[in-house]
Amino acid sequence: MRLHVGCAMWTHRSWTGSVVPKNTGSQDKLRFYSSWCNAVEGNTTFYATPARETVGSWAGQTPGDFRFVVKLPRAITHEKRFRGIDDDLRNFLRVIEPLGPRLESLWIQLPGSFAPGDVAALDQVLRRLPREHRYSVEVRHPLFFTDPTELNNLEKVCAATGTEWVPFDTTAFFAGGAPTSDAEREAWERKPRLPRRSTALTARPIVRYLGRDDETKTVAGWQHWVGVVAGWLQEGRSPTFFLHTPGNHDAPALARRFHDEVRARVPALEPLPEPEPVEPETLF
Q1: What does the pLDDT average to over 125-138?
Q2: pLDDT score recorded for residue 280
Q3: Is the dihedral of CA 4, 201, 149, 160 positive or negative?
Q4: 210-255: per-residue pLDDT in tens?
Q5: How far apart, in whole angstroms, are the C-alpha atoms of residue 96 and residue 29?
Q6: CA nearest 107: which of 2, 222, 211, 205?
Q7: Helix 52-61 × helix 86-95 angle, to 10°
Q8: Inter-axis angle of helices 52-61 and 26-33, to 10 degrees?
Q9: What structural domains and CATH numbers belong to the chain?
Q10: What is the pLDDT of residues 58-77, one digit of tens each?
């Protein structure tokens, strides 16, 4: 029984001095993050495919039970829309090989313009992908959430290949009142407004949750997920929960708090290890 929790990134300027020591080199920031959380969203691969050696360094900085959910490059999902992607996909799969068992899932995030009429193309890609990896899909077109026929069609496509459907739950964020900071205003403009989805299709469900700057509102908004995730664990599933806030300043600590709240309902769940200590700054 295992619950993986994490954030949208493993480095953030505001984490200096709390999650990572000051003057920590880029090659060590993931190591300190991985003592706080046991999973991370691999968003960087969406924008550019890293060098294989870089991916090897990610594996080297993390313990064996750490998990990456790695996003497919936007060239594949957004620009080429699954057409003529064989070389891009082959190269990407080669690059991420060093993650080995640390790769929890390859995450196919699709644009809002990816509509029900495009599902056939997704189906073809999923059936061609190598079966040694797990896959997860995130969609943002409203019809997948509001039209039962289109919802069922996408579920069937995912189920045929053991692919998970990743919800990005922003309902608590948009229900929390008008934005109160620049970060909240940016999220208000950019984040999707979709109904909450709580159905797991596989033994490895993945959830993305967006809270508010106000910790009280963030915690209140995730109570639904505490119950759902606890239920998944009791069913024998191994979920992954990613905690987002508009500024992400306290995201690692909040992810750990979520894990603690789930563990209070599922005492058999092992606690997260204590984070690696960050040495306080001294005068000399």
Answers
A1: 95
A2: 60
A3: positive
A4: 999 999 999 999 999 999 999 999 999 999 999 999 999 999 999 9
A5: 19
A6: 205
A7: 40
A8: 40
A9: 4-265 (3.20.20.410)
A10: 999 999 999 999 999 999 99
| One-letter-per-residue 3-state SS of 74-143 | HHHHHHCCCCCCHHHHHHHHHHCHHHHHHEEEEEEECCCCCCHHHHHHHHHHHHHCCCCCCEEEECCCCH
Q: Which residue has the higher pLDDT, 279 or 100?
A: 100
Residues 6+ apart with CB under 8 A from 156: none
* Prediction pTM value: 0.95
- Quick one: 13 exposed, middle or buried, by C-beta within 10 A (0-12, 13-18, 19+)? exposed
Q: Which two tokens stand for residue 274?
A: 């204590």
Write the DSSP assignment of the chain as a string of letters. ---EEEES-S--GGGBTTTB-TT--HHHHHHHHTTT-SEEEETHHHH-PPPHHHHHHHHHHS-TT-EEEEEPPHIIIIISTTSS-HHHHHHHHHHTGGGGGGEEEEEEE--TT--GGGHHHHHHHHHHS-TTS-EEEE---THHHH-HHHHHHHHHHHHHTTPEEPPEE-HHHHHS-S--SHHHHHHHHHS----------SSS-EEEEE--SSHHHHHHHTHHHHHHHHHHHHTT---EEEEE-SS-TTHHHHHHHHHHHHHHH-TTSPPPPPPPP-PPP---
What local confidence, expressed as pLDDT, does residue 24 receive?
84
Per-residue model confidence (pLDDT) at position 25? 84
